[in-house]
Amino acid sequence: MFWLYALLWLAGMMALARISKRRAAWLLGAGLLLVMSWGACGGGTSTNTQTQPGTPAGTYTLAVTATDAAASTLTHTIQLTLTVN
After folding, report:
1. Per-residue pLDDT tens for 17-66?
2. Cα separation of 79 and 84, whole Å?
3. What are phi and psi of 11, to 5 degrees?
């Protein structure tokens, strides 16, 4: 599937060959960045689930605070309870 996208992108670049060099260079850079980001999405499975079992069961209290970004004078805090089974 990756090669299909790469070929379509290459065909698009060839069709855009008549545009300015600056715009072509920008499109080439954006395309290369996109191709490089595909490599970062390797996926896979983790075999390390036994050493990190997750959050222990129990009840936890959370404090969520919101502050007005413009004036910083308005602040509100709410207490939440999280139950993990």
Report:
1. 666 777 777 777 777 777 777 766 666 655 655 666 788 889 999 999 99
2. 16
3. -65, -40
Q: Distance of alpha carbon 59 from its chain centroid, rounded?
A: 30
Spatial CB neighbours of 24, under 8 Å, sequence gap ≥ 6: 13, 16, 17
CB 20 within 8 A of CB 44: no
Helices (H), 1-85: 2-15, 21-40
Question: Do 25 and 37 form a contact (C-beta atoms < 8 A)?
Answer: no
Maximum CA pair distance of the chain? Answer: 64
Whole-model pTM: value is 0.35
Calpha distance 55→63 (Å, rounded): 18
